[in-house]
C-alpha cells in the first residue's frame, strides 16, 4: 500500500490557501507516503509523465493536517512518482488546521 487511504474529497474546512504564493509561507517538511490520505481518487497521467510538471507550480506537494490525519491536497503525481522511484518519504508543505 502506497498511501494510508485513497479519498475523493477534502473533508477538512476551507483554509484559504489557493495560490502557490499562499502556500509559500508554509515550510516544507518530510512526510511518509504511508501516512497520507489522498483527496483525489484519479491521477492525471499527463501530469505524472510530464517532465516540466512543476515548472509553473510549487516544487512541493501540498498537505493539510487536520484531526491528526495528513491529506494530500495537491501533488498526487509527485507522490506517485516518489513511490515509483521506491522512496517512502517526500518533502511537502504541511498546513496544520486546528478545529
TrEMBL record:
Q: Name the InterPro entries on file.
A: VapB-like_prob
Regions of compositional bias (Basic and acidic residues) in chain numbering: 11-20
Pfam families from the entry? VapB (PF23719)
- Provide the residue span(s) of the region labelled Disordered: 1-21
For this entry, the protein name equals Type II toxin-antitoxin system VapB family antitoxin
Question: What is the species listed in this Swiss-Prot or TrEMBL entry?
Answer: Arthrobacter psychrolactophilus
For this protein's source organism, the top of the classification is: Bacteria, Bacillati, Actinomycetota, Actinomycetes, Micrococcales
Amino acid at each position: 500500500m502506497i498511501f494510508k487511504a485513497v479519498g475523493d474529497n477534502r473533508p477538512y474546512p476551507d483554509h484559504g490557501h489557493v495560490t502557490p504564493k499562499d502556500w509559500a509561507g508554509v515550510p516544507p517538511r518530510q512526510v511518509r507516503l504511508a501516512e497520507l490520505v489522498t483527496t483525489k481518487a484519479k491521477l492525471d497521467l499527463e501530469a505524472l509523465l510530464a517532465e516540466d510538471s512543476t515548472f509553473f507550480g510549487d516544487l512541493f506537494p501540498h498537505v493539510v493536517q487536520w484531526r491528526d490525519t495528513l491529506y494530500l491536497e495537491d501533488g498526487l503525481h509527485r507522490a506517485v512518482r516518489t513511490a515509483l522511484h521506491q522512496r517512502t518519504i517526500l518533502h511537502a508543505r504541511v498546513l496544520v488546521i486546528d478545529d
